[in-house]
Amino acid sequence: MSMLTIAMPKGRIFEEAAALMREAGYKLPADLDESRKLIIEIPEENMRFFLAKPMDVATYVEHGVADVGIAGKDVLLEEERDVYELLDLKISPCYLAVAGLPDTTLNEVAPKIATKYPTVASAYFREKGEQVEIIKLNGSIELAPLIGLSDRIVDIVSTGRTLRENGLVEYETIVSITSRLVVNPVSYRMKNREISTLVSRLTDTIEEQAVR
Amino acid sequence: MSKLLMFEKPVGMRDTLPHIYETKRKVKEAAESAMRSWGYRFIETPALEYYETVGDASAILDRQLFKLLDQQGNTLVLRPDMTAPIARVAAAKLLKERVPLRLAYSASVYRAQQREGGRAAEFEQIGVEMIGDNTISADAEVIALLVSVMEKAGLENFQLSLGHIRFTDELFQQILGTEERAEQLRRFLYEKNYVGYREHVKELPLSSIDKQRLLQFLDLSGDLGCLDEAAKLVEGSAGVEALNELRAVFGRLQEYGVDQYVTFDLPLVSHMSYYTGLVFEVYADGVGAPIGNGGRYDDLLEKFGHSVGATGFGLRVDFLLEALGQLEDEASVHCVLFSNERRREAIEEAQKRRAAGECVLLQDVSGVKDVDTFTESCKSVTFFVGKSSGGNV
Fold first, then answer.
1. Burial class (CB in 10 A: 0-12, 13-18, 19+), B35
2. Across the interface, do B287 and A186 touch by the CB < 8 Å criterion?
3. DSSP A114-138
4. Chain B: nearest CA to A160, how far in angstroms?
5. Between chains, do A190 and B290 touch, taking CB under 8 Å as contact?
6. Helices (H), ranges, B222-305
7. Same domain? B320 vs B381
8. What gap in Å lies between CA B253 and CA A53, rounded to an integer?
9. Nearest Cα residue to A179 out of A100, A27, A69
10. pLDDT tens, A6-16?
11. How far is B27 from chain A (nearest CA, A)?
């Protein structure tokens, strides 16, 4: 059996992803995310984990340096990487939405949309038949309409608290998001046995959790 | 854009330094001689083609084409693959001479990169096209040759996945009824989005049995056994015929003795519309993308006015090198160092060795700053320096 290299997302998704892996019987060390080490080997599972920025997980998998990764659907939509999307892990549910200050309309001349997801946002508005100008930001997207940078934002919403606290309202929901198991196309063939085992163990766990 | 610095080159363009060149040359020679020994004849075509002809007929996506204008205002493309140019030559000229045609190529192709680097925009492809033979034997020959090329190039750990586009088409057509709905599902497969495929199937207005058939289709990969599973999913002759073709090709690959590299993968869709029968991709350890791919493309030649079937494969030389991993030592050069008074002797020695087939570097010692560093990369050195007779080091 050859070793599987798995890219895990740091931050918000990590806890749930690690819990799901543990639930499926994989013995991840308890301090995986606090550990200073970037790469952690688990010889008894013949696996190797590393933590990456969530936005980068699909990139590592596409280039084949990770066989498998756990990435949000938002990342997959934005990055359009050439990877197999094999399994909906049904964790970290949230959605992408259009939000802005209440009772405002889009600027008629040059409507501006601030977002961390330029590809998704521009595809969404193009499909609606609206020409908008996308401004890429890397974080604190809520700030953009407050300070007057944009009319709307496209951002990820899980509870809606951040929006409310900043006095913003949702205008439209674009797409709902959960985390997915993604696999490199070559690993999918060359390490088929190992990956099939992982997929079936995770599938069972996800189904059990759905019943509960 | 900021001013370019003198060392910069366009995104995805790469230099081939001497030691990589040597490795590449050996791999290419091994591959080419395998192709030649199977009776394939090499051809070359121009790097530039018309966008409206070859550019349009090519399997490569429009946004990946490098486009430019000629003096008359026609749009040109840098050839994105070799299959379309070869189809053009075959239809215009060669097919009038001999059918079936067995052609081979080894050439650079160009594909613009949308995003960041990490992927070559110019790379060499080596492959074959078998034009005008619609038999299963032709399909099997091309795959067997591909395996032989990989072996001759020195690769051991690789795998070939085999699918059949007519099986997919037939199954989707039977269950979904319309081409439009079939295309939606095919796109999920093409984008490798199995989650999206499953969700889409669940929402289709179909009986639960039909939904189950579409979901089971995703699991149809592995050994010969999966073809029996596949047979349970389709009704009617066209789907069964496609499965029989797969079985027959596999049987012939057993006769060639290369079946151990082959597995079936029925959900494999390498292109939205280009292929018309068998499709395959080949993978190797240590390379993140398929090393090569191919299949039957019976509609392409028709675009060039000659309605014949064809099959073939293309391998990426850069990925092949990546899979092999090892680079050739460059230290196979013998060095003859001389000082002016013994120049004649040195030239004689060099010529003698060259005539015997050695690579010999002849260097005036006064032109070298540091002799040790200079001779370091040579396999051996002969000195013709000073007044005494020459010695080996």
1. buried
2. yes
3. EES-HHHHHHHHHHTT---EEEE-S
4. 26
5. no
6. 225-233, 237-256, 300-303
7. no
8. 45
9. A69
10. 999 988 788 89
11. 22
Is B388 found in the same domain as B311? Answer: no
Do B127 and B36 fall into the same domain? yes
Query: Residue B330 — pLDDT band, cuts 50, 70, 90?
Result: low
- Give A-chain residues touching B111 at CB under 8 angstroms: none
> Once rounded to an integer, what is the mean pLDDT over residues B240-264?
96
Nearest to B60 by CA among B209, B277, B271, B367: B271
Give B266: exposed, middle or buried? Use CB within 10 Å, 0-12, 13-18, 19+.
Answer: buried
pLDDT digits (tens, 9 = 90+) for A79-93: 999 999 999 999 999
Of B302, B324, B346, which marks where a domain is finished? B324
Residue B273 CA: distances (Å) to CA of B58, B62, B164, B277, B279: 11, 14, 13, 11, 12
**DSSP letters spanning B142-161:** HHHHHHHHHHHTT--SEEEE
- B357, two tokens: 């087939």
Mean pLDDT of all residues in B188-215 = 94
Q: Is the pTM of this model over 0.95?
A: no
Domain limits for position B364: 333-392
* More confident call, B319 vs B118: B319
Residues on chain B bordering chain A, Cβ-to-Cβ distance under 8 angstroms: 118, 157, 159, 161, 192-196, 198-199, 221, 263, 265, 283-290
Residue with tokens 């002016």: B340
Q: Which single residue is written with the structure tokens 């002969």?
A: B382
